[in-house]
Amino acid sequence: MIRLNHLMIQLLRSSTIDHVQIPKKIRNQIVQGFDSTSDAHTFRFLRKRALIAPKSTLPDLTGLECYVNEIGLNIDDHIHHTLLGMEILIAVLNDWKRLDQRLVMRAILSVSSEFTHLTFHVVRPKEPYLDDNIDSYDQPIMFCDSDSSIHNLADLKNTALAPL
């Protein structure tokens, strides 16, 4: 499943770029994969954050994963960092598909005035993270699940911007 709010669709429509190169440092971090402990799946490169996560204040495993698996990109250029975030989202989901076909990973991308945020968690039916009404958010936001047939940024843009 892939869903975008109207603000993210507007942001995508303003771009003609179909590819952004993921910086080598970020690519090297995400290809390390995930640690799976106590039914939680967290990025290996964020292992220290997982160890110090305030588990007693997090509502569930989805909350823990979202706390640990957050990547923030500083904004110099809204469009570029949003598209870079989408490239990272796609790379992580494609890596996840190669590792574990049984569980669905959800990637959430949101854009604030200062950052592009990426968050990743396993989809659990009784642990929703986002509001069902994605248009209720006052910033551009989207999510994409690993069971979507998105292989690159052009696929994502074509799917997201296709007429209903």
A few lines on this structure:
The chain is 37% helix and 22% strand.
Question: What structural keywords apply?
Answer:
two-stranded antiparallel ribbon; about 20% strand; about 160 residues; five-stranded antiparallel β-sheet; alpha+beta
Task: Write up what this structure looks like.
- The relative contact order is 0.23.
- The chain contains six helices and seven strands; from the N terminus they run E-H-H-E-E-H-H-E-H-E-E-E-H.
- The model has no long low-confidence stretch (mean pLDDT 87).
- A five-stranded antiparallel β-sheet has the order 1-7-5-6-4. A two-stranded antiparallel ribbon has the order 2-3.
- 37% of the residues lie in helices and 22% in strands.
- With 164 residues, the protein is α+β, with helices and mostly antiparallel strands.
- It has helices spanning 6-13, 24-30, 47-52, 61-68, 78-99, 153-161, and strands spanning 2-4, 34-37, 40-43, 70-74, 105-111, 115-122, 141-145.
- The protein is globular, with a radius of gyration of 15 Å.
Average pLDDT reading: 87
The biggest sheet, with number of strands, parallel, antiparallel or mixed sense and barrel status, is: 5 strands, antiparallel
Q: Which class of secondary structure composition applies to the elements?
A: alpha+beta
Shape: globular
Strand content: 15-25%
- The percent of residues in helical segments reads 25-40%
Query: DSSP helix count?
Result: 6
The helix/strand order is EHHEEHHEHEEEH
- Gap from first CA to last CA: 14 Å
Return residue spans where pLDDT drops below 50 for at least 5 consecutive residues. none
Estimated radius of gyration: 15 Å
The number of distinct β-strands equals 7
Strand arrangement across the biggest beta sheet: 1-7-5-6-4
